[in-house]
Amino acid sequence: MKFSATTRSVQGSSASRRLRRAGRVPAIVYGGKGDAQNIELEHNEIFHALRKPGFGSSVLEMNLDSKTQKVLLRAVQWHPYKPIVLHVDFQRVRADVAIVTRVPLTYINADESPAVKLEDASINTILTDIEVSCLPADLPSEIVVDLGEMKNGDVLSVESIAAPEGVEILTAATETLATAAIVAVQAEEEPEEPEETEVDESTDTEADESTSEE
């Protein structure tokens, strides 16, 4: 995936505000053999790029002042309630140096599992991504987790993932990926009807007779 950037010569809060008003986004790129460098991005381009699946977990090609650099997205600062990108951090990567990053998980075949199809259970997925270490060329855009064999009561952990070639999984092997369980539905109890109070008719009769004798 590619995006464009230009060198940012001005710094500071006031300069960043002026950039944003002009439809630009202040950013920084660091790591590798170079020093940290202040850059700026075109807001609409980076806004739509950030919405693409895999943009945050892929090695990106940044065209900075007509020169291409390989980078990873490291952090994004968003406006608290508006769809506006405020700041972005990138890290340079080298082809011969391993990187540590997070890769999204894609779960498949949950509806075809015995847990769901035969036992009327639900599968609850816990993790959305895992941490890995690998060379940039070996970085997968996603790791697929097959839930098709899960049964009611099963707990699937990270150790069940087959790591792609050249990729080392750093997330603890005991971390839970997904669980399968039957969700108990609590039946609503019908409200109890109040008991009717029985009237002692004999007492009323005796009282009426006593009154008539007087």
TrEMBL record:
<feature type="domain" description="Large ribosomal subunit protein bL25 beta">
    <location>
        <begin position="99"/>
        <end position="180"/>
    </location>
</feature>
<dbReference type="GO" id="GO:0008097">
    <property type="term" value="F:5S rRNA binding"/>
</dbReference>
<keyword id="KW-0687">Ribonucleoprotein</keyword>
<dbReference type="InterPro" id="IPR020930">
    <property type="entry name" value="Ribosomal_uL5_bac-type"/>
</dbReference>
<feature type="region of interest" description="Disordered">
    <location>
        <begin position="186"/>
        <end position="214"/>
    </location>
</feature>
<dbReference type="InterPro" id="IPR037121">
    <property type="entry name" value="Ribosomal_bL25_C"/>
</dbReference>
<dbReference type="Pfam" id="PF01386">
    <property type="entry name" value="Ribosomal_L25p"/>
</dbReference>
<comment type="function">
    <text>This is one of the proteins that binds to the 5S RNA in the ribosome where it forms part of the central protuberance.</text>
</comment>
<comment type="subunit">
    <text>Part of the 50S ribosomal subunit; part of the 5S rRNA/L5/L18/L25 subcomplex. Contacts the 5S rRNA. Binds to the 5S rRNA independently of L5 and L18.</text>
</comment>
<dbReference type="Pfam" id="PF14693">
    <property type="entry name" value="Ribosomal_TL5_C"/>
</dbReference>
<dbReference type="InterPro" id="IPR011035">
    <property type="entry name" value="Ribosomal_bL25/Gln-tRNA_synth"/>
</dbReference>
<keyword id="KW-0694">RNA-binding</keyword>
<dbReference type="InterPro" id="IPR020056">
    <property type="entry name" value="Rbsml_bL25/Gln-tRNA_synth_N"/>
</dbReference>
<dbReference type="GO" id="GO:0006412">
    <property type="term" value="P:translation"/>
</dbReference>
<dbReference type="InterPro" id="IPR020057">
    <property type="entry name" value="Ribosomal_bL25_b-dom"/>
</dbReference>
<dbReference type="GO" id="GO:0003735">
    <property type="term" value="F:structural constituent of ribosome"/>
</dbReference>
<dbReference type="InterPro" id="IPR020055">
    <property type="entry name" value="Ribosomal_bL25_short"/>
</dbReference>
<comment type="similarity">
    <text>Belongs to the bacterial ribosomal protein bL25 family. CTC subfamily.</text>
</comment>
<protein>
    <recommendedName>
        <fullName>Large ribosomal subunit protein bL25</fullName>
    </recommendedName>
</protein>
<feature type="domain" description="Large ribosomal subunit protein bL25 L25">
    <location>
        <begin position="4"/>
        <end position="90"/>
    </location>
</feature>
<feature type="compositionally biased region" description="Acidic residues">
    <location>
        <begin position="187"/>
        <end position="214"/>
    </location>
</feature>
<keyword id="KW-0689">Ribosomal protein</keyword>
<dbReference type="InterPro" id="IPR029751">
    <property type="entry name" value="Ribosomal_L25_dom"/>
</dbReference>
<keyword id="KW-0699">rRNA-binding</keyword>
<dbReference type="GO" id="GO:0022625">
    <property type="term" value="C:cytosolic large ribosomal subunit"/>
</dbReference>
<dbReference type="InterPro" id="IPR001021">
    <property type="entry name" value="Ribosomal_bL25_long"/>
</dbReference>
